TrEMBL record:
It comes from Nitratifractor salsuginis (strain DSM 16511 / JCM 12458 / E9I37-1). GO terms for cellular component: plasma membrane. This is Trk system potassium uptake protein TrkA. Keywords: Ion transport, NAD, Potassium, Potassium transport, Transport. SUPFAM superfamilies: NAD(P)-binding Rossmann-fold domains (SSF51735), TrkA C-terminal domain-like (SSF116726). Residues 355-438 form the RCK C-terminal domain. Gene3D superfamilies: NAD(P)-binding Rossmann-like Domain, Regulator of K+ conductance, C-terminal domain. It comes from the Bacteria. Pfam families: TrkA_N.
Length: 439
């Protein structure tokens, strides 16, 4: 595909890095140094110019684009660039990153012909919100077309080896000492410290959680949020909606006032300009059930989570903004939630690789891939007998029929409403995609 990316920041860079090996990628930005760094390591076409200036697009006047992606930090710039690009060059699809959730409810997306709008703040806040219902989990993913869920949790029970056999769920991934693998047959022997990914009936998985994770709280009522920026405010708002007791901690006094006003005084806002160690005791932070470090600084988030652990807070959540910190956070036993920029990057990549036929998702920091395809009534797949995918690497395939999970290991005749779902190591992605699209 011919892809144009407006914005060479972290999201734009990561998108270019992922997409340029297999697509023709053009990156537009007025920061010449950022473009030069991109060109040094990636095979891209740099265009130096203001994405809000129509003159910038004159260099691309004869170019057709399969996809235009606007991913700067400014909503206005992304909206204007999408409008100009659509008016100046031939663009088949438009993706846009937006901070203001107002646009999710407005008709502006339809008016500008935007195919996909990604709201990173909402994505991160929703991920944290899922943890209220699953206090022992690290992450929860829901899917279109099936009520079954993917739930990850840390094994904290002291055990050399614990055998997990499929029973209404399957083990579809294990992260152990920075390595990720997909066990054969959906069963696995796990040990203390493993991060286990379970897919299946959520009630079955919920019942299993207390056997594996014994350190997390049974319920979450009292919460502390570090970071009074847009993300911290968004997370605090979600907590309030669920009736949680919330304390928000922010270094900048001015930002404390902004957060207090935005949250209409419904949370206790604390300034930690002169240090935070005493706050854990003096302000009762140590009595929280969950602490969420939601600043844009991963190192700060890690430190606050470790401090919280030392003070006895059972569940600590670190927002991950930089890819290089993902493994470190996991190795420290922290619950890791994608930050807004990471959420934007992963969501856009997933939607690019998805189609109206096949849905693609990522898990375990992108090292695992999920492909899903539904058999709609009247589909060419209805009544068709198909052979299973023959994996040369790590992959698990299931057919979901009326909530029942069936291992897809032999030829089967598909029925309307069936859902095919595969969990595979990232190295298996290309071959698996070809199989799914070729059905």
């Amino acid at each position: 595909m011919d892809i144009i990316i407006a914005g060479a920041g972290k999201v734009g860079y990561n998108l270019a890095r992922t997409l340029s090996p297999v697509h023709n990628v053009t990156v537009i930005d007025r920061n010449a140094e950022a473009l030069a760094r991109l060109q040094e390591s990636l095979d891209i076409l740099p265009v130096n110019g203001d994405i809000e200036d129509p003159r910038t697009y004159r260099k691309l006047i004869d170019k057709e684009a399969d996809l235009f992606i606007a991913v700067t930090d400014m909503d206005e710039a992304n909206l204007i660039s999408t409008l100009i690009a659509g008016d100046t060059i031939e663009v088949k699809r438009k993706f846009i990153r937006l901070r203001n959730e107002f646009f999710a409810k407005s008709s502006i997306r339809e008016k500008l012909g935007i195919d996909e709008a990604v709201f990173p703040l909402e994505l991160t806040s929703n991920t944290v919100e899922q943890l209220f219902a699953y206090p022992r989990a690290n992450n929860v993913k829901s899917f279109a077309y099936t009520p079954l869920k993917l739930i990850s949790l840390r094994v904290s029970v002291e055990a050399e080896l614990l055998t997990l056999e499929p029973e209404g769920f399957a083990v579809v991934g294990v992260e152990r000492e920075k390595e990720f693998f997909i066990p054969e047959g959906g069963s696995a022997e796990v040990k203390t410290g493993d991060l286990v990914y379970l897919f299946g009936d959520e009630e079955r998985i919920k019942a299993l959680c207390p056997r594996l994770e014994v350190e997390a709280p049974e319920s979450i009522e009292r919460c502390v949020v570090f970071g009074g920026g847009d993300l911290g405010i968004s997370i605090a708002r979600k907590l309030i909606e669920h009736g949680k007791e919330v304390k928000l901690v922010e270094e900048d006094l001015k930002q404390c006032h902004i957060a207090d006003e935005a949250l209409e005084g419904e949370v206790m806002t604390l300034s930690c300009k002169y240090g935070t160690a005493e706050l854990f005791e003096e302000e009762g932070l140590a009595h929280a059930d969950m602490l969420i470090a939601a600043t844009g600084n991963d190192e700060y988030n890690i430190i606050k989570c470790l401090e919280a652990k030392e003070h006895g807070i059972q569940k600590v959540v670190a927002v991950n903004n930089e890819m290089e910190y993902y493994n470190l956070m996991h190795s420290l036993g922290l619950v890791v939630v994608r930050g807004p920029k990471m959420s934007a990057y992963h969501t856009i990549v997933e939607r690019i690789h998805s189609s109206h036929v096949v849905t693609e998702r990522k898990y375990c920091g992108g090292r695992g891939v999920i492909l899903l395809r539904k058999v709609f009534p009247g589909s060419v797949l209805e009544g068709k007998k198909i052979k299973p995918y023959r994996s040369t690497g790590e992959a698990l395939l299931y057919l979901i029929r009326e909530k029942e999970m069936i291992r897809f290991t032999e030829a089967m005749k598909l029925m309307a409403e069936d859902v095919l779902i595969a969990f595979a190591h990232e190295e298996e992605t290309e071959k698996l995609e070809q199989w799914f699209h070729g059905l």
